[in-house]
Each structure stands twice: as C-alpha cells, then as structure tokens.
Amino acid sequence: MHDVHAPAAHHGPPTTFISKHVFSLDHKVIGKQYYAMALVAAFIGMFLSWAMRIHLAWTNAAIPGLQILSPNGAPGGVMTPEYYLQILTMHGTMMVFFVLTTAPFAAFGNYFLPIQVGAEDMPFPHFNMMSFWVTFVAFLTLCAAFFVPQGPPLSGWTAYAPLSAIGPVAGPGEGTGQILWAASIGLFCIGQLLGSLNFISTTLDLRAKGMSLMRLPLSAWAWFITSCIGLTAFAVLLPGCILLILDHVAGTSFFIPGGLVLNDQLQSAHSGGSTLLWQHLFWFFGHPEVYIAIVPAMGIVSHVLITNMRRPMLSHRALLYSMIAIGFLSYVVYGHHMFVSGMNPFSALVFSFPTLVITIPATIITLIWLGSLYGSQLRINSASLFALGFVSMFISGGISGFFLAQPSLDILLHATYFVVGHFHLVMGVAAMFGIYAGTYFWFPKMFGRMMNETWGKVHFWMSFVGAYCIFMPFHYLGIAANVRRYSAFVDDYLQPLIPVHKFITIAALFTGFAQMIFLFNFLHSLWFGEKASDNPWEGTSLEWSTKTPVPWNNFDTIPVVYHDPYQYGVESSTGDYVMQASPEQVKTLHDEA
Amino acid sequence: MATTVHEQPKLKPSREPGKWQPDLGGGGRIPVPADGPMRSLKDFSEPPASTAMWVLIAAIVMSFAAFTSALVVRQGGALDWRHLTLPPILFLNTVVILLSSVSLEITRRQIGIRMSARSVRSGKPALWLGATAFLGSLFIAGQYAAWLQLRAQGLYMSTSPNSSFFYLFTVLHALHVLGGMIGLLYVGVKLERMTLRRSTLTAMCRYWHFIGILWLYLLYILWARI
Q: Is residue A16 part of a domain?
C-alpha cells in the first residue's frame, strides 16, 4: 500500500445514458444540471411575480390558469390575500435559493472551477453528484407545496416565527406547506454543504502545476470565497430548519412563545419559545446569502470584462482582497435586517457600523471596474453588455443600501417598497445580469455553439430598461410610505400611487417577455447556433485552452501554468494575449497599471 | 506605448538541493519556471481528503454552535426551564467513546507501520478497527438506554425545553456517530482489499476523534445547562 494522492478524476468515462446524463459524476454535467434547474426555477419565479404584479395593479382581475393551480387560493383566477402571500413566499424562496444561489455558484462553479484550476474533476465526484440530486429533491419538495391541500406557506421567504412555527392555525399553508418549505430548505443546505466541500478542496488541492492562488482567475476566486461563506452560512440555517420542523411535528417550543393567541385561539400547547431566535439563525445565514449570490456574479463579471477590455483590472489584488473582505464582513452585518425586530438600540448601532464599513470594499471593487473600463476599447457583445449592466445595477441598488444601513432611516423605510427596490436591484437583478453575462460568455464552451448576438443584445436592452422601470419606482413608492406585503392597496393615501403600480406591472410584463427572447435564443442556439471554436473570445484562462466540447476528463494532457490569469495587451504569437498554459515569453504593449 | 519584457515567474532554489521554493503571491503549488528543470518540481498540496475533512468538521462545528446559541437564547428568556438530572449511563458512554478513539488510534498506527513497509504483518489492524466499530455501537446502544431512562421518567421531546434540547443534542450526535461507523466500514473494506490510502485513514481518524471531542462538549453543555 502506498500513500498516494487521490487523482483528480477517479472515475472513468461514462458508458451508459444514465451515468452520462442523469446520475453523472462529471462536474460539467452536474454544472449543466444545476443550470437547467435554475432556469426552470427562474421562469416559475418570474411567472409568480407576474401574477403578483397583475394582482397589485388590477386587484380584481382574473389571472388565467391560477384557478387551476389553486381553486381555493384563486377562485375564478382572482387570488385571495392569503394566496398572494403564498405566491410571494414561493417567488422569494424559488428565486433566492434555487436561482440566485444555484446558477452563479453551483452551476457555473461546478462547470468551470475544476477547468480553471487545471483539474480533471472535483476530488469527490460522488459527493458532487449527491449535491445536485439532494438540491433537486429540495426543489421538488418546495414545488410539492403548491399541490398540498392548503397550498404553500404564506410566511415569506424569511419564514418569520411564530407564524411559520405554529401550524395550520396561522393560516393557509402553515401546516404541511410550511413543513415542506422547511424540509426543502434543510435539504438545500445539505446539498450546498456537499458542494462547498468539493469547491474548497478543488481550489486548495487540485490546482495544476504552476497555478498558484494568485494565478487563479477572479471567477475561480469568487467561487472559492463563496463556498467558504456558504459552508458556514448553510451550516447555521440547517439547524434553524431542524428546529422549525420539530416545532411543527414534535410539539417543541423553540420559536413559539407562551400565551400566543391566534385567530382567537390560545395556543396553550406551547410556551417559552423565542421568536427572535429564528430571526438570528435565519439572518446569520440570510445576509451572507446576499453575498453567496453576488460574489460569484462579481467574479464572473470581472472575468468577462477583462476578456473584453483586453487588459487586466487596475488592481487585481485590490479587487481580490476586497471580495475576501466582503466575505468576512458579511457575517457581522446581519442584524441590520432586524432593526425593527425590537432588538436593543445599541445592538442596532453595532450592526449599523459594519454595514456601512462593508460598503468600502464594495466601493473599491466598483471603482476598480469603472477605472479599468475608463479608456478601454471594450468589445461590445451580449456578455460584456450584461457585465456593464451588472455594474450599473450594483451601483444603483447599492446606493439605497446606505440609507437602509442607518437604523433611524430603516425604521421608517423597512416595511415599504423602498426595501423591495433595494434588494431586487442589488441582489436580484444584479446577480441575474451576472448570470446572463456568464451564460453568453461560457455558452460556447458549455454547449459547443454560439448564442445569437443580435437577440442577445435585444435581450439586454429590454432587460436593462425594463428592470430600471420596475425597480426604481419602488424606491419612490417606499418614500411615499407604500407598505410592502399588502395584497391590495385600498387605503386612500395609496390611491394616487396605483398608476405607478400599473406602470411597474406593464414594465414587469415587458421585462419578462425579454426573458422569453433569451429562452428562445438559448434553446435555438443549443441546436442551431453557429459552431464555436475552442477560444471564441480570445481568452487566456484554462477553460479556453481545452477543446470544445470539453472532453470528459477536461484536458488531453494536464496543463502546466506559466502566466498570471489575465495577460492581455501583450505581444505574442497568438495576438494581444497569451494563455496561462502557454510557455511563450511575451512583451507587454501598454503601461502596466 | 511602453514595451517591456514580461517576466516569467521567478523561482528561488531552496536550501535543500533538488527542491524549489516557491516565489508566490500565495498558493500551494510551485509555479513552473520558464527554463527550470521540470523534474525537480514536487507536488506538496494536501490530499483532498484531509482538506475535505477539515471543511466537514468546520461545518459541523458551525451547526452545533448554532444549536448552542439556540439553547442559550431559549434558556435566557424562559420561565419554563426546569433542570433535569442526566442519566448516569451517559458518563459510562463517555468512557466508551473515548476508548473507541484509543482503539482507532492503535488501528491507525498499525496500518501506518504496514504502509511504511517496516513490517507488513504488524499487529492486527482489522481487529482493532472492529473493536472501534463495536465500541461505537456500544455508545449508541448506551445513548438509547439513556433515552429509555428519560422516557421512563415521563420526559419526552415536547415535555420541557430541557428535554427538547437533551434529545436534540444526543440524537444528532448519535447520527454523526452512525455516519462515522459507515466511514469505519468503508475503511475496513478498503483495508481488506489493500486499497486503503493513508489520507483516507487519517481523515477517518480525525472525524472519529472529533465526534468524541464533540460529545465531551455536548456532555458539558447538557450537564451545565440542562
């Protein structure tokens, strides 16, 4: 017996349809499976948002098909207030967990992290396969909540206790639906923990010769940082879900206080639980989750921008260290979600300060992007446009964060659409733009064909204009004290705002239509797109060194890395760039920043 | 437009002949020199099993930290907190799980001697591995006996917050021990087939010792707070 290191890929090429496409050990197939699941979840989430928006603008309008989904929740297609909250819960859960977490991190990370570090596969392919399938079961479990008698839960994606813990007495969906929700999220946590385990060991242990940490592309760094954040964040949400399920099925009182009266019934079976405990457990995960969504998008966007600018960022290290700083700081800001929870005002002050501090690395990153873009001859394509769109959304959404970081302002704005506008722009739309940038950029490598550029640009401009038309007015609504989570606006003071809601709904339908264009482009390009070359964007990192389509073990021969990740603007035999795996000596053609 | 020669990564020869010292901005593996001798490069990154085990342990620590904070918060604001007497068998179980760590350590050392080919027939590692698994089973049986004792006193999961946390901590820990026993089985099969890697064995031992330490921590928390 010899002590040898595990080879990167200790599985052979798949031989059957099942082992190749279903229960695959190949990180690339698993990445595509994650992407497909995220795509389905994104469209479900989008249709749910359409239903909500139509209801908010035209409260009594019947929405075709909704009565089939829930005859009780939407009799005749007009949703009840409770069903509005149930749809709101499912939209948030679907989007945050199964789209924003899985697409930029699990999907692209699975596919490209091993290739970018120069490995044949993840070190634990079985765990990797389990990671996807556990997540997929979590997805089905969540979807199952639509089809149980009382429907999905109505406690929001944050599932605040005691509403989420007390059971059916709290309202439709708070029995079986809420248990399914908690089980789904618990499973999701396990899936992501298995994924993080693989991501971290891949980055630390399976780098090719010459691939020092500082030579990793920024996207690989972003996935690594995200897996470290996810490891600790999901490990805390999982206990929260276990305790929530136990409150439902085992008669415990972790989150349910005594003397609670709901629907005129005293909940005498419970006593002594802490409702704030759930908020602490949830937001200890919940705020890092924001960065689990946005940091991979930052990495992807940086990678895409550099390739299209044909020069490295002004400071690779400053950008990298800022992403790491964001990762660390993400844990100490979570209390800013709880300013109105009744927490001690001094605690609010303590959480407010790091919340303002975290804007410093975020601003450094943004300034590096802008400074690097300044004067660059950016190649305009769908990927680079979406990367620019990401920067725009990140700035627009981030600025409103300055207001919300201060308890005195947040107390006024917290329950309004101002917050909805803020987090949709900075987390939702920005991360989606990052996903799209990654999709247009890596589609040729993943599927061997090019996406249609014209339709890609149409998709971008419609999404860009549409997203601003939806989410900027939200800030205005919030300042006008338009309360969020209401299913209809019947108060007199809200009546003048109804036209704004109608405008937003039309913008949402328009933007959603743009996503249909993307879907058509995606599916059409899969079969009929122009054949892609090995390196269509003239990139330098290792994913462009290997063949298209990528062989099952990624590289015909394991690459040796000679260069930093972004050697653009040089004089080489290939043009203005030299690939990481090329031993060629090169000359720089521009002043080093 | 300036034209400068882009420098290749520099390598400094280490004090030991035949080895290279990395000149990195960080990172685990030695960068390749433009014109250096490739044969002298060695891979010194950790085996993935080792890293993965630390990662797994970190995740479990975070989870139990969350459970502990739940216990502290729940106890802090509760009027219904009533202390319960821990079943004495828990202390016997503690001895059992500590002994299992000792037997696994003996297994590891005997396999280590075999791997280093100092003595191919050194000791009986399979026997000691079996003893570890037996002690692990005994621990779980002992925990089960503790649950039965509590049940006999009329203390169920929902009886009081104390009993809730008692069952929660002990059951979750027992599940981790069960996971460890599956790992022991895996190691045993690999050992039998002569395909066991040292990194796998080391990772397994690390996990088993960890769940022993975790039990000591949980016992302290249960004793001090419940």
A: no
Report the number of distinct structural domains present in chain A. Answer: 1
Of B5, B47, B62, the CB nearest to A236: B62
Rounded-to-integer distance, Cα A182 and Cα B157, Å? 19
Cβ-proximal residues to B139 (8 Å cutoff; 6+ apart), any chain: B93, B96, B97, B100, B177
Q: What are phi and psi of B4, to 5 degrees?
A: -125, 150
Full residue range of the structural domain in which residue B140 is found: 87-225
What's the confidence (pLDDT) of residue B13? 40
CATH of the domain at B156: 1.20.120.80
Contact B63 A236 (CB under 8 A): yes
Q: What is the pLDDT of residues A222-279, one digit of tens each?
A: 999 999 999 999 999 999 999 999 999 999 999 999 888 888 888 888 888 899 999 9
Q: How many CA atoms lie within 13 A of A314 on its CB side?
A: 14
Q: Which domain holds residue A458?
A: 24-256+273-578
Which residue from B62, B35, B153 is spatially nearest to A562, judged by alpha carbons?
Answer: B35
B114 lies in some domain = yes
Q: Does A295 fall in a domain? A: yes
How far is Cα A347 from Cα A335, in angstroms, rounded to an integer?
8
A117: CATH = 1.20.210.10
Supply the ipTM of this predicted assembly: 0.92
Please check whether residue A344 touches B, CB under 8 A: no
- Please tell me the total count of domains within chain B: 1
pLDDT band at B14, cuts 50/70/90?
very low
| Interface residue A271 vs chain B (CB under 8 A) | yes
